[in-house]
Specification:
The chain is mostly beta strands and 298 residues long. It contains four helices and 14 strands. It has one domain: Porin, CATH 2.40.160.60. The protein has a 14-stranded antiparallel β-barrel with strand order 1-2-3-4-5-6-7-8-9-10-11-12-13-14. β1 and β2 form a beta hairpin.
């Protein structure tokens, strides 16, 4: 818990961006969170809004996640709603970190436990996607509210996404926080935050097995922080994600992935219009992530 507390405390924009980067959906987690290039369901509201244009039916998605040995809980819901010439989406994301230990250093050798504090973060999403020739384009508006001890901050950001498919390879990209308001804390002693512009991009390959009822999806993703000037390439920080998914009879899925060097495993099942997914991520320092999600198409 102490390691987690240090990471959460962080430095302003680092944490604000990190808590939004924990991912949405057990399917995505099982594939190492390498999902930005292949997002095609309601979770595209989070991953890449242009993926909403691939939605064939209305879809309601819900998720519960216990992250880092349940030190953090995440609850999320997303909706994809296809219309005649476009698709709209909406969603929420709530992260709660209760019982974070608060200490006071008396000397270099003596640390006193002075109680616990709670941190809660909320994001609400409104998204829009439209086909444009061979491309799908999307836009997401996010309202972000963060409560930390006795202070809070809020702001609005805008993301832009695109995806397409060429020779059987799906690819997509999302620029997050392309436009952002400042995040001023209500406590004037707190550091004001600015969300860095993030470029997320990836691709996916779908391969049908000799048995027409089975297929394999392989996906790769990258995140690059553009906080510093793009010209200073040495200052850019890029994370990599890799995943694979095997479908049997389009009903049962097994998944494996790597999320920034951490192993992920998952499975999923489809029964009529109901989809249920479960996944783990193993982190050597912070502990286990357990994620359950489901969606209903109608």
């Amino acid at each position: 818990m102490m390691i987690l507390f240090c990471l959460l405390l962080g430095l302003g924009d680092t944490y604000l961006n990190d808590f939004m980067g924990l991912g949405v959906g057990a399917r995505a987690l099982g594939m190492g969170n390498a999902f930005v290039g292949i997002a095609d369901d309601a979770t595209a509201v989070y991953w890449n809004s242009s993926g909403l244009a691939k939605a064939k039916k209305k879809e309601l998605f819900l998720m519960h996640s216990g992250d880092f040995d349940d030190a953090i809980t995440i609850n999320s819901g997303m909706l994809a709603y296809p219309l005649k010439n476009c698709t709209i989406g909406a969603g929420f994301y709530i992260l709660s970190a209760p019982g974070i230990p608060l200490t006071d250093t008396v000397t270099t050798d003596i640390v006193i436990d002075t109680g616990t504090i709670n941190a809660t973060d909320y994001i609400s999403y409104a998204a829009f996607a439209v086909p444009f020739g061979s491309l799908n384009l999307g836009l997401t508006l996010k309202y972000i509210y963060r409560s930390w001890v006795v202070a809070n901050t809020e702001g609005v950001t805008v993301d832009f996404g695109m995806n397409s498919k060429f020779n059987g390879i799906s690819y997509g990209a999302s620029i997050e926080n392309l436009v952002s308001t400042p995040f001023y804390w209500s406590d004037t002693l707190a550091t004001n935050d600015e969300l860095p512009v993030m470029l997320k991009y990836g691709l996916g390959l779908e391969h049908n097995m000799a048995n027409a009822n089975s297929k394999i999806n392989i996906c790769l993703g990258f995140d690059t922080s553009l906080k510093d000037r793009i010209a200073e390439f040495t200052s850019l920080n890029t994370d990599a994600y890799l995943g694979m998914e095997y479908w049997w009879k389009q009903q049962l899925a097994l998944r494996i992935g790597e999320d920034r060097g951490n192993l992920t495993l998952g499975c999923g099942i489809i029964y009529q219009n109901l989809k249920v997914d479960y996944a783990f991520k193993f982190h050597p320092d912070l502990g286990l992530v357990k994620r359950l999600s489901g969606s209903l198409c109608f």
